[in-house]
Amino acid sequence: MRLSGARRAVWAYVRSAPGTYAWLGILFVTTVALHHMSPEFEQEFLRRRSTNIHELSRHPVRVLVTSAMWIDGGYWLPYAVLYSVFHARAERWLGTVRWLVVCGAAHVLATLISEGALARAIGEGLAPASAADTLDVGVSYALAGVVAVLVYRIRTPWRYAYLAAVLLVYGYPLTTGPTFTDLGHFVSVLVGLACRPLVAGRARVRNPKETGPVGPG
Fold first, then answer.
1. Tens of pLDDT along 197-215?
2. How far apart are CA 146 and CA 89, in angstroms?
3. pLDDT tens digits, one per residue of 35-50
4. Tell me, what's the pLDDT at 140?
């Protein structure tokens, strides 16, 4: 009976965030596919679906979508945990449409700004021309944006501690030999924080000390 109850609880949680788990399901399938590719073929395959400067200049819409359907590195389980902790909670709180807006805004804006900064660095001779074909796929920009927007789900004074932790995690790499990806992550956080108007009218803020499931309000 306990096992059956646990299964029902898990299934109810999954159904409460359909977008999150549909996306996670796609990532599972694509990750399995990557494991069946040779390393050489995998790199070329991902590069053609990458939001690097070269592909963005030729197929911007296609690569902005397809780049979010693959995980570079092939480890799916950590993302299953992160999606359940952050994406599912944000989707349940904001609703699927608003959650998708946050994800899309963070992914697209962070990609364009970070790749624009890289293009400028190449033009000024601060980065090699080969960087225009750098592999850049993954879901971390959307995740960073969602992590940031959840600041507004937490009650003060816990909100400030959470915000400080987010800024430290994503801001510190910018002080130690930053890459264009580090810039993209920090931009994603700023985009998530800028999505505050989307939280208007949503459920009351959450106290981390409270117990029980986080419901949509």
1. 999 876 555 544 443 433 3
2. 9
3. 888 888 888 888 888 9
4. 94
What are the beta bridge partners of residue 154? 206
SS3 track for the chain: CHHHHHHHHHHHHHHCCHHHHHHHHHHHHHHHHHHCCCHHHHHHHHHCCCCCHHHHHHCHHHHHHHHHHCCCCCCCHHHHHHHHHHHHHHHHHHCHHHHHHHHHHHHHHHHHHHHHHHHHHHHCCCCCHHHHHCCCCCCHHHHHHHHHHHHHHECCCHHHHHHHHHHHHHHHHHHCCCCHHHHHHHHHHHHHHHCHHHHCCCCCCECCCCCCCCCCC
pLDDT of amino acid 212:
41
- Please determine, for residue 171, whether its predicted confidence score (pLDDT) is greater than 50: yes
First to last CA, the chain: 28
Q: Cα Rg for the chain, rounded, in angstroms?
A: 18
Q: Quick one: CA dihedral 106, 169, 123, 65, positive or negative?
A: negative
Contacts of 34 (CB under 8 A, 6+ apart): 42, 46, 70, 71, 74
Orientation of helix 140-149 relative to helix 96-123, angle to 10°: 120
Separation CA 185–CA 212 (nearest Å): 31
Cα–Cα distance measured from residue 209 to residue 168, given in angstroms and rounded to the nearest whole number: 23
Two tokens, residue 97: 């449409």
